[in-house]
Amino acid sequence: MAERPRILIVGGGLIGIRHLEAVAAHPGCTLAGLVDPDPTIAADAPRFADMDEVTGPVDGVIIATPTQLHAQHGAQAAARGWHMLIEKPVAGDLAGARMLREAVQRAGVAALVGHHRRYHAPVQQLKSLLAAGTIGQPLTASLIWAMRKPDAYFDGNWRTAGGSPVMINLVHDIDLLRFTLGEIAEAVALPGPSLRGAGRIESGAVALRFETGATATISFADTAPSPWGFEAGTGENPNIGTTGQDMLWITGTQGAISFPSLTLWSGTEWGQPATRVPLDRQENPQTPLAAQLDHFLQVMNGAPPLISVADAIRTLETALEIETQLRGVRPRLRERTHA
């Protein structure tokens, strides 16, 4: 591998261009080019319509194509001996994810999956606080993700026929809960109304049970403007307005904590008000995408990935189970009562 690894970007969408800019600005690697069939995408880099056109040296690839292409493109990169960072979710279905895992193992290349929220310093701090028993045994969590996506977001692209927020957005929240609270044992989901038509998943509610016995709820909507959501709360996405509002609340046997403010409460007596505990919130020394790129370069040199393909498959399994339930037809409560 070159002293400054040569990184190829595959996919020139919103996140792909952010990856391209991060690689171009990083002193420890070189931008090898952008692969995308759309020649109108503005990018100061060598251009290729397909990975097969790339003949120059490449050490690693960042795959930021539509979800249903992740497994195919990852296997193609593995066959060429390229280490890879794959955007979340790792694949569009479990068969593709497992095929990709086998292709990576067979080729002996390194693979990292881009659940980049794990690189947020406050997320790492939250995980450490919960593991240290700061609020005792975690019992419940409540998470809200709600925003009003513009209609143009779905027009004339791969999201037109689907664009489910479960696979685009909630998969991040599922991974956040897995990362901080542990493995998920069970998921139950209920769909909300489809306002844009075409039977698209747009909103709903999810209940989760963790292997520890803790439970969590997620309320989500991509049709509802709100100040609550990871992107809005943390300001990590330049395309989404920042509100700084909390969007995750966790209770335990000794207290509670909310995120991203990391407001910590302590108290066990019901006759006494909970007491706010001062806590120094850690700040990101750099953007999570930049931190992820740093880590990818380390993974290319043999470091263990923060989230492997196998790890990401567990997040995908839960997301797909939720999506399957949301697309299913359940009898209404009144129908069940009178059955």
What keywords describe this structure?
339 residues, alpha/beta, Rossmann fold, Dihydrodipicolinate Reductase, domain 2, 2 domains, eight-stranded mixed β-sheet, six-stranded parallel β-sheet, 31% helix, globular
Task: Describe, in plain words, how this protein is organized in 3D.
The protein is an alpha/beta fold and 339 residues long. It folds into two domains: 104 residues, NAD(P)-binding Rossmann-like Domain (Rossmann fold), CATH 3.40.50; 160 residues, Dihydrodipicolinate Reductase, domain 2. The chain is built from nine helices and 14 strands. The chain has an eight-stranded mixed sheet, covered by helices on one side. Strands 3-2-1-4-5-6 form a six-stranded parallel sheet, sandwiched between helices. Strand 13 and strand 14 form a beta hairpin. The chain is globular. The C terminus is likely disordered.
